[in-house]
Design goal:
Largest sheet: 4 strands, antiparallel
Radius of gyration: 31 Å
Helix content: 25-40%
Number of helices: 3
Oligomer: single chain
Number of strands: 4
Strand content: 15-25%
Amino acid sequence: MKQKIVIKVEMTCDKCRSKAMALVAATVGVDSVALAGDGKDQVVVVGDGVDSVKLTSALRKKVGHAQLVQVGEVKKEEEKKPAEAAAAASVVEYAYPWHYYQYPSHAVPVYEHPAGAYGYQHRPDTWWM
C-alpha cells in the first residue's frame, strides 16, 4: 500500500533543502520526494513501506526540527489524467539543435621554423662549417 507522508522541517537555506531531499530519497521504499508549503518547508514523501517515525527522527538528526504532519494513503488520480493528457497534447516540444551552435573552427597559421621540425638541420643555401 502506497502512502503519502508530509513532514514539516525547518529549512532555512537551499543547502538544508537539498540535504533533506537527499536523505529522504536515499530511504528504502521511497518512490518520490517533493517540497511543499509556502516557504518550501514541507517534505512530501510517497512510497511503499516507509516508516514515517524513523524518517522524521532521521530528518531531526541531520537537518533540524521536524514535525510529522500527515500520513495517509495515496489517492488515485484517474480523474486528472484525461485533463493532463489534453494539456500535454497541446504542448509542443522542440529538440534543441545542439549541432547548430558549435564553435567555428579557426584557421591556425602554420609557420616553418628555420631549424626544421625535429631539431637543427643544415640548410644547403647557408654556410656550414
